[in-house]
Design brief:
Two copies of one chain form a homodimer.
Chain A: H1 2-7, E1 23-24, H2 26-44, E2 48-51, E3 55-57, H3 58-61, E4 77-79, E5 85-88, H4 93-103, E6 111-120, E7 132-141, H5 146-163, E8 170-176, H6 177-186, H7 198-205, H8 208-220, E9 223-225, E10 231-233, H9 239-249, H10 256-266, H11 271-289, E11 297-299, E12 313-324, E13 330-341, H12 347-350, E14 356-362, H13 363-372, E15 384-386, H14 394-406, E16 411-413, H15 421-430, E17 435-438, H16 441-446, E18 448-453, H17 454-463, H18 467-472, E19 476-480, H19 484-498
Parallel strand pairs in A: 2-6, 8-11, 15-16, 15-17
Antiparallel strand pairs in A: 3-5, 4-5, 6-7, 7-14, 8-12, 9-10, 12-13, 13-14, 17-18, 18-19
Helix pairs in contact in A: 2-5, 5-11, 6-11, 8-9, 10-11
Subunit structure (chains A, B): Homodimer.
Keywords (chains A, B): Aminoacyl-tRNA synthetase, ATP-binding, Cytoplasm, Ligase, Nucleotide-binding, Protein biosynthesis
EC number (chains A, B): 6.1.1.21
Chain lengths: ~500, ~500
């Protein structure tokens, strides 16, 4: 056995690394189309493209990984020949901070930029969780104006509608970190001397969607037993403190005016909290002035956003239509984009605080949503396949293909072994080809070709019931060689109309 | 001093890693437009998109790096948590071989695929040489037919014309590795028992453009003293052998028929060489049948292509117009794409040889060529800038911007500190803004706004000579608030017409 194994030639495994995957055909084209649609909105809003490299120095990336539980992990890193540590970017915001710090004297201020591309996370892969995925971001650097935040919210709204999410099927929800943080400071629960971690409080509040009001109350105080029977430790607030936190969380009223009044009542005299509510009110007014009603952008005090670096307004775009989850239960599709204001990222490089705000769209989740809504033509358009009846006349077939392509019709000649004609039709089938072109020696002599409607051929027995229909829609027809382009175009149009 | 240094806070350097760079605004958009144009041609030819991840296992990538002098180096690699070595892909062909081997039972055969994206090389960076750059490839896997190679050549020709290289400004040159390799084998200069390296011979022949016929003769035999006085070793052929090799290299005739006749004469009875010439003749005939004349695709025995893994036809797209190099000397722009047939890449995984052929376009070089030819609008179109005269009326200004954007006009409100109006116009200038919109309290009361043609304002003193012209083309005008969209659109159109 051992000797046998040694003899075996060692072949590499034909697999991507763990947690990586490939995308084929229509998947790639659909994502590309969606990214083009998104960036066209970003561009119309005055944002300029930036493409930084996939690789950054580890020191430039810093320790701002979204997963705050493991701030030092999560990146793919290695050492350059001169011992500098390099890493693949884990998001598009950290590179923006580096680029802005590097070019701040040449870039306009404020600097509106968009970026799109893959990011990498060195995390444990799971079902649907990959270690490389796309982001598509828009950020405004260099202004503290709430108008920048309001603009990001309207940008998000316009973008979702442009890619095909109808109004009413999404909502952009806005909150402000200062509200809860200010309250916690006033209560002595954050800042110096705090006995509990305000991160823990935020994380607990973020579970509201899952565990509800009473669940959050338990988790904020003494703990809770979850559905599986496991004991989960509480954060350690008193019941009174927990109720004050929950009052913020439950401030959402029937409209923005009511919500803002509730918040003012709930912040318990905190200056910072009051500032946060003022900012929310300003954003609400700016959105209204631009014609974005509360059916599109709404103040919602239950929005948290996990990312540690946000310092002011935070926003989240949620898709509100229902889908069936893997267990067949109805649930809302959920979040497809999020962002907020982060005022300290550039400071790491320059020592000066530079206010900034921005949003990141989860490209793959948004694509999944569009497929769910039937807004993406999931079917790829296969090419016309010119079959090869006579191997020596490849030039004739190539000429046909050229004519079709020059007329803008996607077309290819069969390049496999032409011996078995059935294999050629099977190939055309696999390619989802609408039309096959056939020219044997006999046809060549008579100056004709056969064209075959492959989609119709497949549907014939299922749909066509009378002989008249059959005659009216022949799956295969003989045409003059000179009419190839016109007749193929007609057949494709007929096939598309029939679908 | 030392104590002082210790006190200084350690800030990260705001720089990308050595050999990496950022791309801004129009550069990104232009590349994106060009990639979309290229892939639309690939798609029309029946090629399907494939996007594999940027990361592969080192064992899957193999040792096929183009730089044959250092086959083991040149990649950025690191170990995964389970000790698997991973690396950034160095081209798009090695991942294709892995993907095809992995999915060969599900993919159509032959499999035409295109791919585009960044690749990474761990090489010493230099001026204009970056360690991340774009490639855009088309390959056909699973067919030995020369029709696949001819198709790649016509694809290349169509692609160049589609992106804006006019016919006559480029040439696709085709050769076949079998010709020279076959000859070398017949001469005992390749294969088992050869005393010289056939790679060295290929590399020397590849210098023909630089050193000319006599230079290649010297380098193939005893060596040569270059312009700087340095002695360069010869490969060690006899003069007779060198002349036989040179005869191949110089076989190009007045047309393909003559070239092929010359080659048949030059291969000195080599079977393999004869096969190579047959293949070239077949490609020439297929291209002619498709209407691609020798002004677009031509047989040229001097094409070598450095890559070690080519086994048959090789091709290269060269731009033939002249540019001035950095020293002000005229030279041809040179190669922008290349490829060929490689039959052994998939075999590494499966043990079975899978014939394949394909091409890679050097995206950044082609972009440079288009800029050189003035085929790309190098100027970016800046947004309309709505200035802020009254900080408290941000909602009014945001509403204007919304109207403009909804009408498809790129527009933004000034988000910096509005105190100094001069700074707002400087900002608009930096943004290459065509039009600034101004609405002070007085205008607001009267229901009007001022719009300012910024390009015209900048040109006024230089171009406009009479007062009549000045009056006919005022750089700033007062319009009704309700006419904002129409009047801005007119002003932009006028500005574009005037350029």
């Amino acid at each position: 056995m051992a000797r046998n194994r040694e003899k075996k030639p060692q072949r590499p495994k034909a697999l991507p690394p763990k947690g990586f995957r490939d995308y084929f055909g229509a998947e790639v084209a659909q994502r590309n189309d969606m990214l083009n649609a998104i960036t066209s909105v970003y561009h119309r809003y005055g944002f300029d493209a930036l493409e930084s490299s996939g690789v950054e120095t580890v020191e430039a990336l810093g320790k701002f990984l979204p997963d705050v539980d493991r701030p030092n992990e999560g990146v793919f890193a290695w050492q350059d020949e001169d011992d500098t540590w390099m890493a693949l970017r884990y998001d598009l915001t950290a590179p923006l901070a580096r680029v802005y710090a590097q070019n701040r004297n040449d870039l306009p201020t404020p600097y509106r930029r968009y970026a799109t591309g893959p990011v990498w996370r060195n995390e444990k892969p799971g079902p649907g969780r990959y270690r490389q995925f796309y982001q598509c971001d828009a950020d405004t650097v260099g202004t503290a104006s709430m108008a920048a935040d309001a603009e990001i919210c309207s940008l998000l709204s316009d973008t979702l509608e442009t890619v095909g999410i109808p109004r009413g099927d999404y909502i952009v929800r806005v909150n402000n970190r200062k509200v809860l943080n200010g309250l916690l400071e006033t209560l002595g629960l954050a800042g110096e001397g705090a006995t509990v971690s305000s991160d823990d409080i935020l994380r607990t509040v973020d579970k509201y969607d899952k565990v509800g009001e009473e669940g959050v109350r338990q988790l904020l105080t003494t703990g809770r037993t979850d559905a599986s029977g496991a004991e989960i430790d509480g954060v350690g607030l008193t019941l009174e403190q927990a109720n004050i936190v929950l009052k913020i969380l439950l401030s959402k009223g029937a409209n923005n005016v009511e919500t803002i009044a509730n918040l003012r009542d709930a912040i318990a005299g905190s200056d910072e909290g009051g500032k946060g509510v003022d900012e929310l009110e300003e954003i609400a007014n700016l959105c209204a002035a631009q014609g974005y009603g509360e059916d599109r952008i709404v103040i919602d005090p239950s929005v948290v956003r996990g990312l540690g670096y946000y310092t002011g307004p935070v926003y989240e775009a949620e898709l509100t239509f229902e889908i069936l989850d893997e267990k067949g239960r109805k649930r809302q599709f959920g979040s497809v984009a999020g962002g907020g204001r982060y005022d300290d990222l550039v400071k790491r490089f320059t020592g000066q605080a530079v206010p900034a705000t921005g949003v990141s769209i989860g490209v793959d989740r948004l694509l999944a949503a569009l497929r769910e809504k039937g807004r993406i033509d999931a079917q790829s358009k296969g090419p016309v396949v010119v079959t090869v009846m006579d191997r020596d006349r490849m030039g004739d077939y190539q000429a046909m293909v050229s004519e079709l392509r020059n007329a803008g019709i996607r077309a290819e000649v069969y390049l496999g072994n032409p011996k078995n004609f059935g294999n050629q039709l099977k190939y055309a089938d696999k390619r989802e080809s609408p039309v096959a072109v056939i020219e044997g020696g006999d046809e060549k002599e008579r100056g004709v070709v056969q064209i075959k409607d492959l989609a119709l051929g497949a549907r014939l027995s299922a749909e066509i019931e009378t002989t008249e229909e059959w005659k009216a829609q022949p799956a295969q027809m003989e045409i003059k060689r000179g009419d190839l382009v016109d007749e193929v175009r007609k057949m494709i149009a007929r096939a598309e109309g029939a679908v």
